[in-house]
């Protein structure tokens, strides 16, 4: 798996869930399919009068989620911005060309109510529940710093093996200290809750 494959899977899923936060701090989510994919960016269309557009212009932070029929979850966390005015028509026309149904929603000149946003810096997480052990990995879109997540066993480990026994994915290996194979970890916290000496940290 890699970034390009993640983006292709998102494109094949088609309709993606976009999550934002409104001015009252309440979570908002909507399905969006008016999207164009480039190797290094996503461009998407929405109307200027929508609350979605207002939230993006005010804050820009967005999470996008898709789920494939193979039990794969892909989550993109980034910041969207309105593309410059002289590029709006270029990306809008490309999106309408690739998504012909939009012509029924915004016929003729009414498409001019739309605004094109771009995401070119984001963290993309891939999570496959359809294999055993599960598989997860994180990728960069653009110049972003990845956030460390999950659980890690510290030097306080006494080697008792409790964490390994409690792991539903059997992804903890013997050692001094024991280690978690991060690409197969569920982040469920079972090892963390059951370690008798509290040697496991949550990052």
Automatic annotation (TrEMBL):
Coiled coil: none annotated. Signal peptide: none annotated. Pfam families: Fer4, PNPOx_N. Residues 148-173, 176-203 form the 4Fe-4S ferredoxin-type domain. GO terms for molecular function: 4 iron, 4 sulfur cluster binding; metal ion binding. Keywords: 4Fe-4S, Electron transport, Iron, Iron-sulfur, Metal-binding, Transport. The keyword Iron-sulfur applies. PANTHER family: DIMETHYLSULFOXIDE REDUCTASE CHAIN B, OXIDOREDUCTASE. This is Putative pyridoxamine 5'-phosphate oxidase family protein. It comes from Frisingicoccus caecimuris.
């Amino acid at each position: 798996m890699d970034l390009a494959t993640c983006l292709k899977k998102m494109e094949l899923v088609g309709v993606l869930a976009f999550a934002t936060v409104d001015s009252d701090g309440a979570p908002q989510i909507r399905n969006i399919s008016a999207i164009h994919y480039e190797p290094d960016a996503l461009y998407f269309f929405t109307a200027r009068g929508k609350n979605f557009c207002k939230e993006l212009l005010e804050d820009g932070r967005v999470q996008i989620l898709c789920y494939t029929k193979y039990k794969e979850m892909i989550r993109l966390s980034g910041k969207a911005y309105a593309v410059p005015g002289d590029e709006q028509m270029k990306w809008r026309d490309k999106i309408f060309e690739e998504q012909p149904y939009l012509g029924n929603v915004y016929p003729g000149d009414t498409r001019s109510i739309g605004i094109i946003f771009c995401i070119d810096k984001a963290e993309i997480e891939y999570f496959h529940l359809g294999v055993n052990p599960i598989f997860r990995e994180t990728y960069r879109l653009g110049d972003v710093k990845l956030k460390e997540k999950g659980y890690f066993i510290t030097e306080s480990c006494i080697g008792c093996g409790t964490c390994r026994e409690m792991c539903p994915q059997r992804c903890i290996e013997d050692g001094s200290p024991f280690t978690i194979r991060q690409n197969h970890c569920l982040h469920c916290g079972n090892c963390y809750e059951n370690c008798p000496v509290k040697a496991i940290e949550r990052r």
